Amino acid sequence: MKPWLLLLLLALTELTSAQKFSILGKVVDGDNRSLSYATVTISKKFLRTTTNDQGEFAFQIPVESRNDILSVTMIGFQPFEAPIWSLFQSSGKMAIIKMQPVSLLLDEVVVLDKIKPGEILKISISRIDQNFPTEPFLMEGFYRDLKKLGGTYVSLLEAAVKIQDEDYFAPRDKRKLRERVALQEVRSSLGYSNKFIDFFEKDNLLENLLLNNMIRYRLFPSEDNFFNEVKLEGETTYKNRKAIVLKYQKEFEMRAFIDKLNFGILYIEYTDSRPAEIEKIRGVEGKQVKVKRIIDFSYLEKKLHLNYFKIISQVNWYDIESGKLKFETELERELLIYKIDLNSKKRITLEEKMKSYGLQYQDQSYNQKFWSNFNAIKASPLDKKAIADLEREQPLEKQFQMD
Question: Same domain for 262 and 320?
Protein backbone atom coordinates (compact mmCIF):
# COMPACT_ATOMS: atom_id res chain seq x y z
CA MET A 1 0.00 0.00 0.00
CA LYS A 2 1.27 3.48 -0.88
CA PRO A 3 2.31 5.61 2.13
CA TRP A 4 -0.03 8.49 1.30
CA LEU A 5 -3.00 6.11 1.04
CA LEU A 6 -2.15 4.55 4.40
CA LEU A 7 -2.01 7.99 6.03
CA LEU A 8 -5.37 8.88 4.50
CA LEU A 9 -6.96 5.67 5.79
CA LEU A 10 -5.53 6.28 9.26
CA ALA A 11 -6.91 9.82 9.24
CA LEU A 12 -10.35 8.64 8.16
CA THR A 13 -10.28 5.94 10.85
CA GLU A 14 -9.49 8.62 13.41
CA LEU A 15 -12.41 10.70 12.16
CA THR A 16 -14.91 7.90 12.55
CA SER A 17 -13.81 7.05 16.10
CA ALA A 18 -15.56 10.03 17.70
CA GLN A 19 -18.84 11.89 17.37
CA LYS A 20 -16.98 15.13 16.64
CA PHE A 21 -13.50 15.98 15.42
CA SER A 22 -11.50 19.18 15.18
CA ILE A 23 -10.32 20.98 12.08
CA LEU A 24 -7.54 23.44 12.88
CA GLY A 25 -6.75 25.98 10.19
CA LYS A 26 -5.24 29.30 9.32
CA VAL A 27 -6.59 31.55 6.56
CA VAL A 28 -4.06 33.70 4.70
CA ASP A 29 -3.82 35.79 1.54
CA GLY A 30 -1.40 35.30 -1.36
CA ASP A 31 1.42 36.89 0.65
CA ASN A 32 0.72 34.64 3.67
CA ARG A 33 -0.74 37.51 5.68
CA SER A 34 -3.38 36.46 8.18
CA LEU A 35 -7.04 37.13 7.33
CA SER A 36 -9.10 37.84 10.44
CA TYR A 37 -12.89 37.45 10.72
CA ALA A 38 -13.20 35.19 7.67
CA THR A 39 -16.33 33.03 7.83
CA VAL A 40 -15.81 29.26 7.93
CA THR A 41 -18.90 27.21 7.08
CA ILE A 42 -20.04 23.68 6.38
CA SER A 43 -21.83 24.05 3.06
CA LYS A 44 -25.59 23.46 3.05
CA LYS A 45 -25.65 23.59 6.87
CA PHE A 46 -25.66 26.56 9.21
CA LEU A 47 -22.67 25.29 11.17
CA ARG A 48 -19.98 27.94 11.21
CA THR A 49 -17.18 29.70 13.01
CA THR A 50 -14.92 32.66 12.26
CA THR A 51 -11.18 33.27 12.20
CA ASN A 52 -9.53 35.26 14.96
CA ASP A 53 -7.14 38.21 14.67
CA GLN A 54 -4.38 35.89 13.45
CA GLY A 55 -6.58 34.17 10.86
CA GLU A 56 -6.83 30.96 12.89
CA PHE A 57 -9.88 28.85 13.61
CA ALA A 58 -10.81 25.64 15.39
CA PHE A 59 -13.97 23.92 14.24
CA GLN A 60 -15.67 21.06 16.08
CA ILE A 61 -17.40 19.20 13.26
CA PRO A 62 -19.93 16.34 13.56
CA VAL A 63 -18.41 13.14 12.22
CA GLU A 64 -21.36 12.65 9.86
CA SER A 65 -20.27 15.82 8.06
CA ARG A 66 -16.76 14.58 7.21
CA ASN A 67 -17.67 14.25 3.51
CA ASP A 68 -19.30 17.68 3.32
CA ILE A 69 -17.68 20.79 1.87
CA LEU A 70 -15.96 23.33 4.10
CA SER A 71 -16.29 26.87 2.76
CA VAL A 72 -14.30 29.99 3.68
CA THR A 73 -15.50 33.46 2.65
CA MET A 74 -13.95 36.87 3.19
CA ILE A 75 -14.62 40.35 1.89
CA GLY A 76 -12.44 41.05 -1.16
CA PHE A 77 -11.50 37.39 -1.76
CA GLN A 78 -12.78 34.52 -3.85
CA PRO A 79 -14.58 31.83 -1.81
CA PHE A 80 -12.53 28.76 -0.87
CA GLU A 81 -14.12 25.31 -0.88
CA ALA A 82 -12.70 21.87 -0.13
CA PRO A 83 -13.92 18.51 1.25
CA ILE A 84 -13.66 18.48 5.03
CA TRP A 85 -11.71 15.22 5.11
CA SER A 86 -8.99 16.73 2.89
CA LEU A 87 -8.26 19.43 5.49
CA PHE A 88 -7.96 17.09 8.46
CA GLN A 89 -4.46 17.19 9.96
CA SER A 90 -3.23 14.78 12.61
CA SER A 91 -1.29 15.77 15.75
CA GLY A 92 -2.92 19.17 16.01
CA LYS A 93 -1.34 20.61 12.86
CA MET A 94 -3.03 23.48 11.08
CA ALA A 95 -4.36 23.36 7.55
CA ILE A 96 -3.25 26.47 5.65
CA ILE A 97 -6.02 27.95 3.51
CA LYS A 98 -4.84 30.50 0.96
CA MET A 99 -7.43 32.94 -0.40
CA GLN A 100 -7.26 34.60 -3.80
CA PRO A 101 -8.18 38.32 -4.02
CA VAL A 102 -11.09 39.75 -5.98
CA SER A 103 -10.64 43.18 -7.51
CA LEU A 104 -12.92 46.04 -6.53
CA LEU A 105 -14.10 47.26 -9.92
CA LEU A 106 -15.88 50.54 -10.38
CA ASP A 107 -16.32 50.33 -14.13
CA GLU A 108 -18.41 47.16 -13.88
CA VAL A 109 -21.13 48.72 -11.74
CA VAL A 110 -23.93 48.86 -14.27
CA VAL A 111 -26.44 50.34 -11.81
CA LEU A 112 -24.40 53.53 -11.48
CA ASP A 113 -26.20 55.39 -14.28
CA LYS A 114 -29.62 54.16 -13.19
CA ILE A 115 -29.71 54.46 -9.40
CA LYS A 116 -27.82 56.84 -7.13
CA PRO A 117 -25.77 55.23 -4.31
CA GLY A 118 -28.04 56.71 -1.65
CA GLU A 119 -31.07 55.27 -3.42
CA ILE A 120 -29.43 51.84 -3.43
CA LEU A 121 -29.11 52.04 0.36
CA LYS A 122 -32.71 53.27 0.69
CA ILE A 123 -33.93 50.31 -1.37
CA SER A 124 -31.84 47.93 0.76
CA ILE A 125 -33.38 49.27 3.96
CA SER A 126 -36.90 49.13 2.51
CA ARG A 127 -36.34 45.49 1.51
CA ILE A 128 -35.20 44.25 4.91
CA ASP A 129 -38.69 42.77 5.37
CA GLN A 130 -38.20 40.76 2.15
CA ASN A 131 -34.54 39.72 2.39
CA PHE A 132 -34.41 38.86 6.10
CA PRO A 133 -36.44 36.31 8.13
CA THR A 134 -40.22 36.57 8.08
CA GLU A 135 -40.87 33.49 10.26
CA PRO A 136 -39.63 32.33 13.69
CA PHE A 137 -36.12 30.87 13.99
CA LEU A 138 -33.72 29.77 16.73
CA MET A 139 -30.01 30.65 16.77
CA GLU A 140 -27.19 29.14 18.81
CA GLY A 141 -24.12 31.25 19.42
CA PHE A 142 -21.05 32.18 21.41
CA TYR A 143 -20.80 35.55 23.18
CA ARG A 144 -17.68 37.11 24.66
CA ASP A 145 -16.87 40.44 26.23
CA LEU A 146 -13.44 41.72 27.25
CA LYS A 147 -12.72 44.84 29.29
CA LYS A 148 -9.45 46.76 29.16
CA LEU A 149 -8.15 49.43 31.51
CA GLY A 150 -5.19 51.47 30.25
CA GLY A 151 -4.31 48.78 27.71
CA THR A 152 -4.50 45.93 30.25
CA TYR A 153 -7.28 43.34 30.19
CA VAL A 154 -9.09 43.28 33.52
CA SER A 155 -12.10 41.01 32.91
CA LEU A 156 -13.50 38.33 30.64
CA LEU A 157 -16.99 36.89 30.29
CA GLU A 158 -18.10 34.18 27.86
CA ALA A 159 -21.51 32.63 27.29
CA ALA A 160 -23.11 29.94 25.17
CA VAL A 161 -26.50 31.27 24.16
CA LYS A 162 -29.70 30.45 22.33
CA ILE A 163 -31.52 33.35 20.67
CA GLN A 164 -35.10 33.08 19.48
CA ASP A 165 -36.63 35.65 17.14
CA GLU A 166 -39.92 35.89 15.29
CA ASP A 167 -38.89 37.86 12.20
CA TYR A 168 -37.02 40.97 11.03
CA PHE A 169 -40.02 43.26 10.69
CA ALA A 170 -39.45 46.82 11.93
CA PRO A 171 -39.99 47.06 15.71
CA ARG A 172 -42.37 49.61 17.18
CA ASP A 173 -39.99 50.38 20.03
CA LYS A 174 -36.31 50.28 19.05
CA ARG A 175 -35.29 50.38 22.72
CA LYS A 176 -37.03 47.10 23.58
CA LEU A 177 -35.31 43.81 22.76
CA ARG A 178 -37.37 41.72 20.37
CA GLU A 179 -35.23 38.61 20.64
CA ARG A 180 -35.65 36.16 23.52
CA VAL A 181 -32.30 34.91 24.83
CA ALA A 182 -31.51 31.82 26.93
CA LEU A 183 -28.13 31.38 28.59
CA GLN A 184 -26.86 27.81 28.25
CA GLU A 185 -23.58 28.34 30.09
CA VAL A 186 -21.78 31.42 31.43
CA ARG A 187 -18.27 31.78 32.80
CA SER A 188 -16.39 34.89 33.92
CA SER A 189 -13.07 35.91 35.42
CA LEU A 190 -12.76 37.27 38.94
CA GLY A 191 -11.96 40.67 37.43
CA TYR A 192 -15.66 41.16 36.87
CA SER A 193 -15.88 42.23 40.50
CA ASN A 194 -12.81 44.50 40.69
CA LYS A 195 -12.89 48.14 41.78
CA PHE A 196 -12.76 49.50 38.21
CA ILE A 197 -15.86 47.69 37.00
CA ASP A 198 -17.96 50.82 37.62
CA PHE A 199 -16.16 52.54 34.75
CA PHE A 200 -17.70 50.15 32.22
CA GLU A 201 -21.30 49.75 31.10
CA LYS A 202 -23.27 48.17 33.92
CA ASP A 203 -26.30 46.86 32.04
CA ASN A 204 -26.75 43.56 30.23
CA LEU A 205 -24.00 43.89 27.61
CA LEU A 206 -25.38 41.12 25.38
CA GLU A 207 -28.81 42.75 25.30
CA ASN A 208 -27.19 46.08 24.44
CA LEU A 209 -25.20 44.41 21.65
CA LEU A 210 -28.34 42.95 20.07
CA LEU A 211 -30.13 46.30 20.30
CA ASN A 212 -27.31 47.81 18.21
CA ASN A 213 -28.06 45.56 15.23
CA MET A 214 -28.55 48.34 12.66
CA ILE A 215 -30.57 46.12 10.34
CA ARG A 216 -32.79 44.39 12.90
CA TYR A 217 -33.67 47.68 14.65
CA ARG A 218 -33.47 50.04 11.62
CA LEU A 219 -30.78 52.27 13.15
CA PHE A 220 -30.01 54.19 9.97
CA PRO A 221 -30.33 57.99 9.70
CA SER A 222 -33.52 58.99 7.90
CA GLU A 223 -32.46 62.45 6.69
CA ASP A 224 -32.01 63.04 2.97
CA ASN A 225 -28.63 64.66 3.67
CA PHE A 226 -27.32 61.29 4.80
CA PHE A 227 -28.44 59.40 1.70
CA ASN A 228 -27.23 62.21 -0.58
CA GLU A 229 -23.70 61.80 0.80
CA VAL A 230 -23.52 58.02 0.30
CA LYS A 231 -20.87 57.23 -2.32
CA LEU A 232 -20.23 54.28 -4.59
CA GLU A 233 -16.91 52.58 -3.84
CA GLY A 234 -17.17 49.81 -6.42
CA GLU A 235 -18.27 46.24 -6.97
CA THR A 236 -16.84 42.99 -5.66
CA THR A 237 -17.76 39.38 -4.89
CA TYR A 238 -18.72 38.42 -1.35
CA LYS A 239 -19.82 34.93 -0.32
CA ASN A 240 -20.42 33.97 -3.96
CA ARG A 241 -22.65 37.02 -4.48
CA LYS A 242 -21.96 40.08 -6.60
CA ALA A 243 -21.94 42.97 -4.16
CA ILE A 244 -22.16 46.75 -4.53
CA VAL A 245 -19.90 48.53 -2.03
CA LEU A 246 -21.24 51.78 -0.58
CA LYS A 247 -19.48 54.18 1.77
CA TYR A 248 -20.34 57.22 3.88
CA GLN A 249 -17.62 59.46 5.35
CA LYS A 250 -18.95 62.50 7.18
CA GLU A 251 -19.71 62.79 10.91
CA PHE A 252 -19.30 59.00 11.10
CA GLU A 253 -17.99 56.38 8.68
CA MET A 254 -19.96 53.49 7.24
CA ARG A 255 -19.19 50.84 4.63
CA ALA A 256 -21.93 48.54 3.35
CA PHE A 257 -21.88 45.53 1.01
CA ILE A 258 -25.19 45.23 -0.84
CA ASP A 259 -26.27 42.14 -2.80
CA LYS A 260 -26.52 43.29 -6.40
CA LEU A 261 -29.29 40.80 -7.19
CA ASN A 262 -31.86 41.61 -4.49
CA PHE A 263 -30.35 44.58 -2.58
CA GLY A 264 -29.90 42.47 0.57
CA ILE A 265 -27.49 43.92 3.16
CA LEU A 266 -24.60 41.46 3.44
CA TYR A 267 -22.17 43.35 5.65
CA ILE A 268 -21.84 46.69 7.45
CA GLU A 269 -18.87 48.32 9.14
CA TYR A 270 -19.65 51.45 11.16
CA THR A 271 -17.22 53.75 13.01
CA ASP A 272 -18.21 56.79 15.06
CA SER A 273 -15.39 58.92 16.50
CA ARG A 274 -17.53 61.83 17.66
CA PRO A 275 -16.89 62.64 21.35
CA ALA A 276 -19.85 62.01 23.63
CA GLU A 277 -20.18 62.45 27.39
CA ILE A 278 -20.90 59.21 29.24
CA GLU A 279 -21.12 59.91 32.98
CA LYS A 280 -19.36 61.42 35.98
CA ILE A 281 -18.17 59.10 38.72
CA ARG A 282 -15.57 59.26 41.52
CA GLY A 283 -14.24 62.64 40.45
CA VAL A 284 -13.73 61.75 36.79
CA GLU A 285 -15.81 62.30 33.67
CA GLY A 286 -16.11 59.72 30.91
CA LYS A 287 -16.16 60.70 27.24
CA GLN A 288 -16.74 58.16 24.50
CA VAL A 289 -14.05 58.61 21.84
CA LYS A 290 -14.81 55.78 19.43
CA VAL A 291 -17.37 53.09 18.67
CA LYS A 292 -16.87 50.52 15.95
CA ARG A 293 -19.46 47.96 14.81
CA ILE A 294 -18.95 45.05 12.43
CA ILE A 295 -22.01 43.05 11.45
CA ASP A 296 -22.08 40.22 8.94
CA PHE A 297 -24.94 38.17 7.46
CA SER A 298 -25.17 34.90 5.52
CA TYR A 299 -27.90 33.29 3.45
CA LEU A 300 -29.88 30.34 4.72
CA GLU A 301 -32.90 29.18 2.70
CA LYS A 302 -32.79 32.40 0.64
CA LYS A 303 -32.99 34.64 3.71
CA LEU A 304 -30.17 36.61 5.31
CA HIS A 305 -29.36 35.65 8.91
CA LEU A 306 -26.96 37.09 11.45
CA ASN A 307 -23.54 35.47 11.25
CA TYR A 308 -21.15 37.64 13.28
CA PHE A 309 -21.46 40.85 15.29
CA LYS A 310 -18.71 42.82 17.04
CA ILE A 311 -18.67 46.15 18.87
CA ILE A 312 -15.60 47.93 20.27
CA SER A 313 -16.21 50.95 22.52
CA GLN A 314 -13.43 53.25 23.76
CA VAL A 315 -13.89 55.78 26.58
CA ASN A 316 -11.43 58.32 28.00
CA TRP A 317 -11.78 59.40 31.63
CA TYR A 318 -10.77 62.94 32.62
CA ASP A 319 -10.30 64.60 35.99
CA ILE A 320 -13.37 66.80 36.51
CA GLU A 321 -11.43 69.70 38.06
CA SER A 322 -8.24 69.76 35.96
CA GLY A 323 -9.56 68.23 32.75
CA LYS A 324 -6.47 66.01 32.49
CA LEU A 325 -6.73 62.50 31.09
CA LYS A 326 -6.58 59.98 33.94
CA PHE A 327 -7.07 56.62 32.19
CA GLU A 328 -8.70 54.87 29.23
CA THR A 329 -11.16 51.99 29.07
CA GLU A 330 -12.16 49.72 26.21
CA LEU A 331 -15.03 47.25 25.94
CA GLU A 332 -14.97 44.59 23.23
CA ARG A 333 -18.04 42.44 22.58
CA GLU A 334 -18.59 39.79 19.94
CA LEU A 335 -21.32 37.33 19.06
CA LEU A 336 -20.76 34.40 16.71
CA ILE A 337 -23.80 32.49 15.45
CA TYR A 338 -22.78 28.94 14.57
CA LYS A 339 -26.14 27.21 14.15
CA ILE A 340 -29.66 28.21 13.06
CA ASP A 341 -32.79 26.08 13.27
CA LEU A 342 -35.60 27.26 11.00
CA ASN A 343 -37.99 24.52 12.10
CA SER A 344 -37.53 24.49 15.85
CA LYS A 345 -40.75 23.93 17.77
CA LYS A 346 -39.06 24.63 21.09
CA ARG A 347 -39.76 28.05 22.58
CA ILE A 348 -37.59 29.81 25.14
CA THR A 349 -39.80 30.06 28.20
CA LEU A 350 -40.01 33.00 30.59
CA GLU A 351 -38.14 30.90 33.16
CA GLU A 352 -35.32 30.25 30.67
CA LYS A 353 -35.22 33.81 29.36
CA MET A 354 -32.12 35.87 30.12
CA LYS A 355 -32.68 38.56 32.75
CA SER A 356 -32.17 42.24 31.93
CA TYR A 357 -29.32 42.74 34.43
CA GLY A 358 -25.63 41.93 33.91
CA LEU A 359 -24.64 38.45 32.75
CA GLN A 360 -22.03 38.19 35.53
CA TYR A 361 -24.94 37.94 37.98
CA GLN A 362 -26.60 35.20 35.93
CA ASP A 363 -23.70 32.78 35.72
CA GLN A 364 -24.01 29.18 36.80
CA SER A 365 -21.65 26.57 38.20
CA TYR A 366 -18.66 26.23 35.89
CA ASN A 367 -19.17 23.33 33.47
CA GLN A 368 -15.64 22.42 32.42
CA LYS A 369 -16.74 19.49 30.23
CA PHE A 370 -19.12 21.70 28.26
CA TRP A 371 -16.51 24.38 27.59
CA SER A 372 -13.80 21.91 26.59
CA ASN A 373 -16.03 20.68 23.75
CA PHE A 374 -17.61 24.02 22.82
CA ASN A 375 -17.00 25.35 19.31
CA ALA A 376 -15.70 28.75 20.50
CA ILE A 377 -13.25 31.07 18.80
CA LYS A 378 -9.72 29.66 18.96
CA ALA A 379 -7.20 31.41 21.20
CA SER A 380 -5.07 33.94 19.29
CA PRO A 381 -2.08 36.09 20.27
CA LEU A 382 -4.52 38.85 21.22
CA ASP A 383 -6.45 36.42 23.37
CA LYS A 384 -3.17 35.14 24.81
CA LYS A 385 -2.31 38.67 25.93
CA ALA A 386 -5.72 38.87 27.55
CA ILE A 387 -5.11 35.56 29.28
CA ALA A 388 -1.68 36.72 30.47
CA ASP A 389 -3.20 39.90 31.91
CA LEU A 390 -6.10 38.08 33.53
CA GLU A 391 -3.91 35.32 34.96
CA ARG A 392 -1.53 37.58 36.84
CA GLU A 393 -2.78 36.15 40.12
CA GLN A 394 -4.17 32.73 39.19
CA PRO A 395 -5.17 30.64 36.14
CA LEU A 396 -8.48 31.41 34.47
CA GLU A 397 -9.67 27.85 35.00
CA LYS A 398 -9.50 28.40 38.76
CA GLN A 399 -11.20 31.77 38.41
CA PHE A 400 -14.05 30.20 36.43
CA GLN A 401 -14.50 27.61 39.18
CA MET A 402 -14.42 30.22 41.97
CA ASP A 403 -16.65 32.85 40.37
Answer: yes
